[in-house]
């Protein structure tokens, strides 16, 4: 049985896989591509180079022949995978020279990826320089709302599993079915140019000890972080499409989470509560009953208007348009960080946590509660966000709750 997917395929219409060379996609993601295709997802394949420089001793004529052969091998491999209707888009950039054409590659991908719900690309930390460039270009070009996954290739053969640069905390494993595994093996065998000696007797590019890493029962991917905070523009679009984008009023997850969060607070009443990213105010309204003063803000004007409506008649509640980290000012007896930290890039998250310590009065509390899976548009998952908050020296944990859906911590300012 397949492992849980990193996202619900019912939300996915289009997926684009990027390969630096013909065969990268088959080695790293053939099983997952079969699954996407079988679920009706529209799959596109972009190949940056023809892989013509696999054997450096070859002259121009031999390189041209190899590039043509590798194109044909990829077409054959896709047929063997049962996804022969996926027609590769060849960019024709120089093999082993993507670093010199990074801007061109990023520009091409920015157009090709603009409608993609899912982007798969080589792991940006892979030892092969072309893999790194293809992965980085994909991250730079991917739409704000796309889910990005990377697949390692030479990591398996050239790095130790204990290498500190491997982001195991962002790993997700996809278990292949028997049929997917069989089809993948047949597809890999189509790349004869890579699994047999080169034109001058060179060792195969993919000898048995390398191929062994791709013959197993699972494929490994890394969630990739765009490195930037989620766009406020994207949230504004969601609120224009629906007054309650996450169904915070009706979903049991939201109602249960609010109940657990409020019951986890150590005190029945607080002086001042600050709530960034208040959304349409469903939690704000309940927090207002537990304090003398509540200061809330959100970057989306439509959300602020809805939150003001939800708290109308509560004179001790002030709600404004502001963003993190800049909007986090003042002094709080309780700071509430709900479903927001994982949307922040590294710099914004670090500044928000630093300001959280500054804003919180000594002995005051911070309530952090986040969905555990990786949310669309988010640079990280809930666990990563909470780890960073928990390691700040200004806080000590008081309450911890971890269930299958969300993570909750209450911390006290030292």
TrEMBL record:
GO BP, sorted A to Z: glycoside metabolic process; oligosaccharide biosynthetic process
Q: Superkingdom of this entry's organism?
A: Bacteria
Keywords linked to the UniProt accession: Zinc
Q: What are the GO MF terms of this UniProt record?
A: hydrolase activity, acting on carbon-nitrogen (but not peptide) bonds, in linear amides; S-adenosylmethionine-dependent methyltransferase activity
Q: Which Pfam families match?
A: NodS, PIG-L
* CDD domains, sorted: AdoMet_MTases
Q: Which PANTHER family does this UniProt record tie to the protein?
A: BLR3841 PROTEIN (PTHR12993:SF29), N-ACETYLGLUCOSAMINYL-PHOSPHATIDYLINOSITOL DE-N-ACETYLASE-RELATED (PTHR12993)
| Name of the protein in question | N-acetylglucosaminyl deacetylase, LmbE family
Q: Which organism is it from?
A: Prauserella marina
Q: What is the lineage of its organism?
A: Bacteria, Bacillati, Actinomycetota, Actinomycetes, Pseudonocardiales
